[in-house]
Amino acid sequence: MFLKVDFASSTPLYAQLKEQVLYSIASGKIKSGSKLPSVREVSTELRINPSTVTQAYRELEYEKIIFTKKGQGTFVSENSVQMSSKEKEQILNQVIEKVIIKAHHLGTNSNDLLKLFKAQLKKMKDFLENGKKEVNDE
Amino acid sequence: MSNAIDISNIKHKFGKKKVLDGFNLEIPKGEAIALLGANGSGKTTLIQMMTGLLKPDAGEIKLFGENPLDCSNGFIPGISFVSEKRGIFPWMTVGGTLKFARNITPDWDCAEEKKLLSHLKLRHDQKTRHLSRGEHGKLVLLMALASKPKLLIMDEPTEGLDPLVKRTFMKQLIDLMLNEGRTVFYSTHEMQEAERLARKVAILVDGKVKVYEDMHKLKCKHRKIQAVFEQDTTLPIIPGSCNIRRWDEKVYMDVRDWNEKTDEIIQSSGFENIEILPADLEDVFCMYAGEEE
């Protein structure tokens, strides 16, 4: 199952579930039209109160991201979520921040970090254009 | 009557000690509530009053609108209790114990009993005095769930149980809660379990319910702060701060009723390297229960 909960976070559990469903749809991990795990499945597997799952699903349904077919389950709406550019930025910034902190601790200066970043970008571009294989080698 | 539990102005003394010091608590149907409190804070006393085993000095408790003390046969339909000692006798077998419970519980569901027996891996021919602590806990739970209660009241149900039995317990409880409208009220010291199962939290401190709040709001409203402040100088006052510790120039503190205003105050009070961390339920509990007068 793609859902999980983090008790160390100050984000409420239902909001965590909601965010993960949104993220998984936007990132293509779950496709539109596909079925979400049932409330029973999520609450039993994560060992959380079923109302918490219901609350997350209810809000997503209200926002027309998902819909319920009676007796069949909950599904992702067609053409449901396009992530806003702000949300995309947020996700990327979190990752970039981690890299910057790491570089700071390793004593790598901004210029070298930018060079590395550009080199990786170029590698990725080459891969997409020429189908070179070594992208994930490092 | 839309509440499952109504507690009004309940008071009780043991000797000179005020165990319960006059508070109200309303628990709507369909809620799952964890009752937290330090040892000796009155949790068990409160739950004993719900079962009708103890008469409060003042105030009253109503379960589905009925006072457990007024029920002549000691039975309000749809309610189950879990406590360690409930109805298990050392000379009986598991089967005998269940037969006994079946006879005194009008709502007993035999199909549910069978299902639970196989889920919990208990056998009829086991002698109750030979049961391990975990099996004992499972048997108590089985007896409470076999009537598919509308209201389940439990006093530290997972105390002393191993992680496997705790998981089984949680699964059975979730199964019950998947049926709409079931109310669960239980006392516990297991904070993570409460975070998983409860939607609301009540914290008993000094005989009163000091906190009664939705779990998610509770966590949003509390933070742990780490920061740097000049050594041996008086700290500025941060509203809601408690449990302040100082190590050289470092300051650690907990903050209740966290909001944007508190954030502004901290940012502009001369602290440096400020880190604001979320508080889990255990942190929140200690912010109230651990408070020195």
Question: How many separate domains of chain A?
Answer: 2
Find the CATH topology of the largest domain in chain B: Rossmann fold
Rough shape of chain B? elongated
Question: What's the number of structural domains of chain B?
Answer: 2
Amino-to-carboxy terminus distance of chain A: 29 Å
Rg over C-alpha atoms of chain A, rounded to the nearest angstrom: 19 Å
- Identify the biggest protein-protein contact and residues per side: A-B, 19 and 25 residues
**What structural class do the secondary elements of chain A suggest?**
mainly alpha
- The second-level CATH architecture of the largest domain in chain A is Orthogonal Bundle
Give the CATH architecture of the largest domain in chain B: 3-Layer(aba) Sandwich
Q: If strands are numbered along the chain, what order do they take across the biggest sheet of chain B? A: 6-7-8-4-9-10
Oligomer: heterodimer
Task: State the helicity of chain B in percent bands.
Answer: 25-40%
Rounded average pLDDT of chain B = 90
CATH class of the largest domain in chain A: Mainly Alpha
- Kindly name the structural category of chain B: alpha/beta
Quick one: CATH superfamily of the largest domain in chain A?
Answer: Winged helix-like DNA-binding domain superfamily/Winged helix DNA-binding domain
Q: What is the helix/strand order of chain A?
A: HHHEEHH
